[in-house]
């Protein structure tokens, strides 16, 4: 699992500047099918994120009650399920589906993946891939910041577009 997720994370084209939303947009384009991000008040003990695969589109549902950093990780975790191909496995019984995503008819849904526990291999793989993607994105952003600083000094780091003219 480690080698597979490491290879996926290392070969994935990351958007610049990085955001989970931009990565998901690029993933949708690459897959040739829409991925919609939905925010919902997911009460405990429901998972804080879900991937719902339908015949026409994929939906990533993220809890509304979280921090921005946690939201980014949830989105990356659910996108990792798609990158790993977990959406192509058989649909288990999900009796709570109408409560979680009330706008989607039961017959339309092919697969629901929710973080019900980290002991399932698919959840471990998605969690590891999400962490590796975020680690790589942060490492590359730090490298770009160092390059900018070396080329343009501190003004470049804070977004200054022009230098103060010499007197």
Automatic annotation (TrEMBL):
Superkingdom of source: Bacteria
Record keywords: Plasmid
Name the UniProt record assigns to this protein:
ParH-like protein
| Organism of origin | Streptomyces clavuligerus
Q: Give the lineage.
A: Bacteria, Bacillati, Actinomycetota, Actinomycetes, Kitasatosporales
């Amino acid at each position: 699992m480690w080698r597979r997720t490491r290879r996926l994370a290392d070969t994935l084209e990351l958007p610049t500047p990085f955001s989970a939303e931009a990565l998901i947009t690029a993933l949708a384009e690459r897959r040739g099918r829409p991925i919609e991000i939905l925010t919902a008040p997911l009460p405990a003990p429901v998972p804080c994120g879900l991937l719902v695969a339908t015949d026409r589109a994929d939906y990533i549902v993220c809890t509304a009650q979280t921090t921005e950093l946690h939201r980014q990780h949830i989105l990356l975790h659910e996108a990792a399920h798609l990158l790993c191909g977990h959406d192509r496995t058989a649909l288990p019984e999900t009796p709570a589906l109408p409560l979680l995503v009330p706008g989607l008819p039961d017959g339309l849904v092919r697969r629901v993946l929710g973080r019900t526990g980290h002991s399932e291999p698919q959840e471990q793989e998605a969690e590891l891939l999400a962490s590796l993607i975020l680690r790589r994105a942060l490492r590359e952003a730090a490298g770009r910041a160092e390059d900018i600083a070396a080329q343009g000094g501190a003004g470049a780091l804070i977004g200054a577009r022009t230098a103060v003219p010499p007197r």
